[in-house]
Amino acid sequence: MKKTIFVLTIFLVCSTGQLLAQHAATYLTAEPPENKTMKHEETEFYTPVPPEVKGVANFETPPPDAIILFDGKNLDKWVSSANGGAAQWTVSNGVLTVKNHAGAIRTKQSFGDCQLHIEWRTPTPAKGDGQGRGNSGIFLQSQYELQVLDSYKAETYSNGQAGSIYKQYPPLANACLPPGQWQSYDIFYKAPVFHKDGSLENPASITVVQNGILVQNNAAIKGKTLYVGHPWYEAHGMLPLELQDHGNPVSYRNIWIREIK
Ligand code: MG
């Protein structure tokens, strides 16, 4: 009996591993059917836990050719993702803050390859735990989430903490500063390339420096960053940058982008 269970376990582990490897290697370009019956837990892992490396935030002045997306004054460059109307988040004292239930906001302009700088701060005192603790997110091309979360001495699944490419890659280190402190992301992003028939030519890739610490090193994005199911690619061209409303009053400032052509 013990032997049967052992063999069965090995078989299950191998087939799950093969399935994941297959997904990683083939870059699905249609939604896999098993996504319909999967549970969110199936794409979350808690080990390894990224080592803590204390970073120093980078509050850099925008370079001369940067497009300033938020300079502390207004949301002129942004709209509501839901309806394209005015973005409803709060702007106060030079800071942009998620307004609960206002929904995600996106840039009016679409982007492809880019260098993006963004500063963010999770609420203090910290409230909630896990994915409910200072959750927002930066969606490159409205598809691929670089997680924003209070991951300072706070537990969640490794591939869902701050600095992760959500449910795909945990950060290489936990560079988080305490809640209430400003932090920085410097993001170097290469958009995916699709053939004319919609199949994938090259996956998107991303390098991220959080508070001066490398947390993603040219990671090959596997497709849309989904809460449930395996990632997959849907062909697209240039698309807006999007910021997530996850119901937590996370703040942003000094957002600028350089188009790489
Ligand atoms: Mg998020």
Can you walk me through this structure?
The protein is built from one helix and 15 strands; from the N terminus they run αβββββββββββββββ. A hairpin with a 2-residue loop joins strand 3 (90-92) and strand 4 (95-97). The longest helix is centred in the first third of the chain and has 25 residues, at 2-26. The protein is 10% helix and 30% strand. Mean pLDDT is 92; it is low at 1-24. The radius of gyration is 19 Å and the shape is globular. The strands form three sheets. Strands 1, 3, 4, 6, 9, 12, 13 and 15 form an eight-stranded antiparallel β-sheet that branches. The relative contact order is 0.25. The N and C termini lie far apart (62 Å). The protein has two domains: 1-30; 31-259, Sandwich (Jelly Rolls), CATH 2.60.120. The protein has 261 residues and is mainly beta. The structure holds magnesium ion. The site of magnesium ion has 8 residues, from strand 7 and strand 8.
CATH top-level class of the largest domain:
Mainly Beta
CATH architecture label of the largest domain: Sandwich
Q: Separation of termini? A: 62 Å
CATH topology of the largest domain: Jelly Rolls
Helix content: under 10%
Which strand-content bin applies to the residues? 25-35%
Hetero groups in this structure are: magnesium ion
Characteristic key phrases:
globular, mainly beta, 30% strand, Jelly Rolls, five-stranded antiparallel sheet, disordered N terminus, eight-stranded antiparallel sheet, 15 strands, 261 residues, 1 helix, binds magnesium ion, 2 domains
